[in-house]
Amino acid sequence: MAKLLLVEDNEANRKMLIRRLVRAGHDVPFAANGSEGVSMARSERPNLILMDLTLPVMDGLEATRLLKADEATRKIPVIALTALAMVGDREKAFEAGCDDYDTKPIDLTRLLEKIEYWLTHEPSTVHE
Ligand code: MN
């Protein structure tokens, strides 16, 4: 079991993903915007963060930049989640420091494989 922080503003998506990740055995605290996500990453110290990119208050790219600029949170793997149609998001996500990327609608098997990978591999995209 791992603690996965889900940062997602869409309540329906959030509830569905939490239910499925909890069923897969994980503890899943959540935040509904990027600013709250950064605060919760600092307080909850999750093993991994699932970061929607389109968020109110602070988007997922900016939240990831802040997390990767902070010694206390930079080693937490961040998997960006975005809609398949958002061309260019993948590059923007990696530029912001995200360690991996997946598209919605979520393929749970594929996402769990990425989660398992990042729970056992140290992020290498730590920008100095
Ligand atoms: Mn969103």
Question: What does this molecule look like?
Answer:
- The structure is a single chain.
- The protein has helices at 11-23, 34-44, 60-69, 89-96, 108-119, and strands spanning 4-7, 30-31, 48-52, 78-83, 100-104.
- With 128 residues, the chain is of the alpha/beta class.
- 42% of the residues lie in helices and 17% in strands.
- The longest helix is centred in the N-terminal third of the chain and has 13 residues, at 11-23.
- Strands 2-1-3-4-5 form a five-stranded parallel β-sheet, with helices on both faces.
- Helix 2 (34-44) packs parallel to helix 3 (60-69).
- The mean pLDDT is 93.
- The structure holds manganese (II) ion.
- Manganese (II) ion binds next to loops.
Spatial strand order of the main sheet: 2-1-3-4-5
* Shape summary: globular
The helix-strand sequence is EHEHEHEHEH
Q: Would you tell me the overall average pLDDT? A: 93
Q: Tell me how many strands there are.
A: 5
List the helices and strands and how they pair.
Layout: E1 4-7, H1 11-23, E2 30-31, H2 34-44, E3 48-52, H3 60-69, E4 78-83, H4 89-96, E5 100-104, H5 108-119
Parallel strand pairs: 1-2, 1-3, 3-4, 4-5
Helix pairs in contact: 2-3
The structure holds manganese (II) ion.
Top keywords for this entry?
five-stranded parallel sheet; 5 helices; 42% helix; alpha/beta; 5 strands; globular; single chain; binds manganese (II) ion; 128 residues
